[in-house]
Design goal:
The structure is a homotetramer. By secondary structure, chain A is α/β, with parallel strands linked by helices. Chain A has 2 domains: 9-219 and 333-424, Aminopeptidase, CATH 3.40.630.10; 221-331, Alpha-Beta Plaits (2-Layer Sandwich). Chain A contains 12 helices and 12 strands. In chain A, the strands form 2 sheets. Chain A has an 8-stranded mixed sheet. The first copy, chain A, has a 4-stranded antiparallel sheet with strand order 8-9-7-10. Chain A is globular. Chain A starts with 8 loop residues before the first helix and ends with a helix. Chains in contact: A-B, A-C, A-D, B-C, B-D, C-D. At the A-B interface, helix 8, strand 8 and strand 9 of A face helix 8, strand 8 and strand 9 of B. Strand 9 of chain C pairs antiparallel with strand 8 of chain D. Chains A, B, C, D: It holds the Pfam family Peptidase_M20. Chains A, B, C, D: Keywords: Hydrolase.
Chain lengths: 426, 426, 426, 426
């Protein structure tokens, strides 16, 4: 049986560059969501978006001012009706029902970019080729642009070959993966509850180009938490003794957070990624806020990190007579592999273009709240897995010169394409 | 000889409340400047403003984004022609020439407010009486609103009594006093070079209500300096070891700056009033900036503080493999009193309403870059002085509940009024 | 063929308690060494000790005052001739030559105790049974007392059965294992160069009682380093600004050292275990010294940790105008397993009393400079291995209530005993 | 009337050098006390010492081990009977009763030295002239050696001229002035309750040579306090997460203590002069102790400093899950001048050899618990004062090269001598 093959490597690369040029952070993916919605609806997919696929009770880490700014910036680029559909939340799920009996399988990618300023080095490929970020201070520095392009290409192929397939496909475009924010509200909307299989893929991750890893280990559990300190302002020249210095509390807490001890039973991570304190040069700073994340190889170790973090922050506030409050902003858990899915990935990889080596596992050492969606699928009786498609990188993830090998988009596409035919081929 | 007395205490209080409600920070005083310009021009003053009175080579600590925001907010409230005159700098000087021979005397006040969020406590008078700040995050919490009201009242009186006076009066409305930014560029414009006398007054300053201090001591020399750290971002989960953490460098520097030792020879101060670091929660922070001020009882002690600050900041950057640059943003010096001016203030205070006690001196323990203007006047052969009009305060300067006794505006007005007649009375 | 079995579990326990009561830290094991020397010489072993088995050029972390104190304390308990033999270094190697051809095999244990104050809780077994530490501030809190007892028991058995054995046995009692100090100078003396097999065992290590692990993984490479800061004293009241504060430099360094980032490629550790700074309450502290250790899963990761440590310490010194020098005090490397040795341990464990489970591996997550001796043996063509004999513990290693199950001494003895017969049995 | 003049400048200098060579810290002044006792008894003074002049309920900051060490070192140099008299406390008061009616006047000096290592620079006078400290780590680096020499010379003169004097003289040799420890227990013994006048003098204090200051201002109130942290030890490699790190708590506290804000109402000081933490390199540190002092221009400001210190230390302990306890170790208060005493000092200074200028006041900016004794005298109806005899210094007080001009001993002697004759001359 012959399938149409309308998706070229060039198409994937061009789409990825288009996405790359307009990076939007979590819960702000207005242009990104609209691009997907228009593409999928044109292809005949049933498209759900915004609060249709996001349970709003579980939204965390949504920043009003930032959202307003990106929504405003999107107004020139997006159909107002689509913008309205995204009020309340970004995020898209496209559903293709063949009408023929068969399993329901899902593929997951992420919409959001990072608050990283893209390199302007003339050797940096996006600069050289003219597709660098058009939004100062933000960049697709994690590969999500590539993941989206592959799923959009897959959508095109699926539409073109719909008549030769059975069952149902769901293409899931998750908002707010950075910060582990989108997974939980997507899961709690029930949108993945009917999946027999959920497949997730990621480019890069320090795996060499050509290698595909079919079941990474050491997905770190993580908690994202904001701390907000409140002190008392005073004139730094006349009455310095009256102030209660929130900037000092936050600085002290920062040093102590980064020094939470390693754990003898497994890996840990901690980061204070953002800190803003104070009102003006000659006023004792009365406010401070910080964005923190902790990670642990298991939930118990992650809890140890979180409890230590809270104790240190509270003590630091007490030192300086300040108050402090905390708010959990996101979370991810670890990954329990399904052998069948791992085997499917291995089969798929072996036939994928550019793949030269298939490995069972690696240490992931990071977090991806895809794990929340995968666990949800597993809890409902489905199976789920995570594949890493290696690539030489110009710089590591989240760095200003991050850039993967663009031809690897073909490799990831081939894997997904194989899985569709395996499950849904007539 | 009889003067007209058109200025009532009620007028001063009402004007002060109008000013209080629209607080603008340094170099952003668009509405404030326009209010003065219109008032003075209506009264027949010759008015210079913006770059006519500000030497732009000496402008420091002007923040583009903040200026743009306040300029935009002023567009509904200010004549566009006036706004144009303020492009490049805020600040106003009104000149009244009587046409009769006599000395040239100046009075100085400040236009700017502070980045302090005003209290919403119903007992806080601006809240109770409905004249609280209409600009979230900013507040006239130092008394500059009162100083302006007094000089505007004085302008009215001067205009009404112009025919009975000789010589020339300059009313100087300095921008950016907070941060010690406006004094130097005003001085370098030459606008005070022809003054025979420069009189400066301040309300509050922890002097009890009823007391007037005619020559405060211990004006602290100060340097305002910004430090900017640059590190390297990386993914906090996968490659934490690759990052060069600017947030940690800045936190470490903050603790060390606040711990610069006292000086055995005189008073010192130090404050890290503002700190912003990092790009996102899961990225090792690669940038940080902080706003710092040091003070010293003498220039030598202030230099000691500044040198210590630089050494500590540089060492902290080195600890974390970061680079750091510094930029001086403002400065003030100490105050050398003129006995004649002190005596004039004493005479004036004795006849002022509400004044119950005249004191020679006090420890000012703060900085006011009026000192830069005063030193300029003295260097050109004129005389200069600084008077503090005490007031009971609801909370100290720069605090969210700061509020002076409004009837003290009359007291300061009476002092200035007396000085005008003493020098320029026919 | 029948061997004599003169060593009872009771003998091992009694000997272990005798050792437990007199804990001596590294390079101070005078009583401990003498006890071994007398026991082995009485049994007919050839005994080398002190500088005969220690290459003095590689001695690190020997503290003169501490050594003098423990040598003085030993004078009442030890034959003066033996004390003389230990001048310059502690440490003992006993050699039993059967005179019959055969391999040379070695067993390693450690002589030193820790600067931990033993618990006086009446439920703590050494307290209850009356064999608690007699030296305030020091304790055998790592199991070295047990390791010594087993080798001394093995010596007795070897002597009694010498005529039924072939080849040569070396029993090695390493000084200064804590701090990874003794391994290198022992290795550099050449004393293990002729070994065909080197067997090392450790009790506890968080392995459950009954389980024996035949080839632990994740021995951390480690560097032990001292940092010494030098500043300038001054009177803290009159001239605080003149001092260069070494205590502040060291405190700042401590916080930054404990906050060296985790490494994405493998485990790390860091500890500032000791800090002493300052001369007196009212003097700006002009000296500080700290004892630090870093660890890494590989030599590259350990080097990363060490380089970060040096950079942070140097930057901290610069912040406060101090000088700093560093001295490496000890080191350990990772462990490359020999399959044959692992299999021998497994065979031996299966027949050992109390052993209920034999495991291939575990994460050791600590350091033991036995690895330096093992690598030396391997580099000369021999084989080496490390076995962990699990035990329920009352508290973790290095804690005040540390106590293993004493009957496990029999289990370790049985393993060693089996290995002797395997290699040297007639 | 003619007095005998048996005391030469050479005698004073020689005596001062003898004292300089044997520096003993607070509560350890065995040789120093004995030297005074023998000298005074030989001259016919009634001598009280140890617990006869020290109220033991008020002894603070006495360190047992240090005392034992210095007592042992004194055994070769001091008559055992005298050593016995000093059991329980050091300190001496010599009383000369003329038997003729007249006032009772006292002179105060201090016995103790500092934990400063004396410079070995060949240009340092004690090194060059061979009278440098014979006790490593300790030094008379504050001038107490000179003060003692002057009072011993005064004793000789008083004895020689006793028949020409009336009234009573008390020569008070205070132990433990450094750390502000000796003043309170001396005062509480009642030994100064009968004084009509108490005269205290100090050499140096940053006053130029030739100048004498008759009533210094800004004696800082001070509190000396020890903080002791208690955490939990654990193995830094295997179980770092189990430890509660007292070294980190203490380091964090140190940084925060040195950063207690300045006070708008007056001078402050703070110092962490000594810190010891941890047990060993590879153990999470479970203990830490620090010696701290705070000072304030008034008792209220000193209390502010002390309260801030306690809050910061407690918060730091909480951050790391540690406990902390504090113990006040010493205290001094401010100085209320008596005009009559000031005038007496001025008269006396004008006739003193080498004095070229008499000044009313200076900023002392330090603490001296002579203030506790002076306040006691004043509370009983007597008068008290403090004179500073300026000197060029080779290095500031408490520094390793501190050295005053030795001929200034004559100047201080002349002042005291004049005061004796003024009050008690026949």
């Amino acid at each position: 049986m012959a399938y149409l093959e309308p998706i070229s490597q060039e198409w994937l690369i061009a789409k990825r560059r288009e996405i790359h040029a307009w990076p939007e952070p979590g819960w702000c993916e207005f242009v990104s969501s609209a691009r997907v919605i228009e593409h999928l609806e044109k292809l005949g997919f049933k498209v759900l978006c915004g609060l249709e696929v996001i349970n709003k009770d579980y939204i965390r880490g949504a920043m009003k001012q930032q959202i307003a700014k990106f929504r405003a910036a999107a107004q020139d680029k997006v159909d107002p009706k689509i913008l309205q559909r995204l009020d309340g939340a970004t995020g898209v799920v496209g559903i293709l029902e063949t009408g023929r009996p068969g399993p329901t399988i899902g593929f997951l990618c992420n919409l959001d970019a990072l608050p990283v300023t893209e390199s302007t080095d003339p050797e940096h490929n996006p600069t050289k080729e003219g597709y660098a970020s058009q939004i100062p201070g933000y960049m697709h520095a994690c590969g999500h642009d590539g993941h989206q392009a592959v799923l959009m290409g897959l959508a095109s192929w699926l539409a073109a070959n719909k008549d030769q397939l059975c069952g149902t496909v769901k293409l899931i475009f998750e908002p707010g993966e950075e910060g582990s924010r989108g997974g939980r509200p997507l899961a709690q909307s029930g949108i993945v509850d009917d999946l027999d299989y959920l497949y997730v893929g990621h480019l890069g991750c320090d795996v060499p180009g050509g290698e595909v890893v079919t079941a990474p280990e050491k997905f770190l559990c993580t908690t994202k938490v904001d701390f907000r300190f409140k002190g008392t302002p005073s004139h730094a020249g006349m009455q310095p003794e009256v102030g209660r210095n929130a900037l000092m509390a936050a600085s002290t807490a920062s040093l102590a957070l980064m020094a939470i001890p390693r754990h003898g039973q497994g890996m840990t991570r901690v980061n204070v990624g953002y800190l803003r304190a104070g009102e003006g040069r000659n006023v004792i700073a009365s406010t401070a806020e910080m964005q923190v994340e902790v990670r642990g190889e298991t939930e118990a170790i992650n809890n140890y990190m979180f409890n230590e973090a809270e104790a240190r922050v509270k003590g630091a506030a007490a030192m300086y007579g300040c108050e402090v409050e905390s708010e959990v902003m996101g979370e991810a858990i670890d990954f329990i592999k399904d052998d069948e899915v791992q085997n499917n990935f291995a089969e798929a990889a072996k036939q994928a273009k550019y793949c030269t080596k298939v490995s069972d596992t690696m240490n992931f050492n990071g977090s991806d709240d895809a794990t929340v969606l995968m666990r949800r699928v597993q809890s409902k009786g489905g199976k789920a897995g995570y594949v890493v498609v290696g690539s030489e990188l110009k710089a590591g993830h989240h760095q200003a010169k991050f850039e993967f090998e663009e031809f690897r988009l073909q490799e990831l596409f081939d894997i997904y394409h194989y899985l569709v035919i395996k499950h849904l081929g007539a």
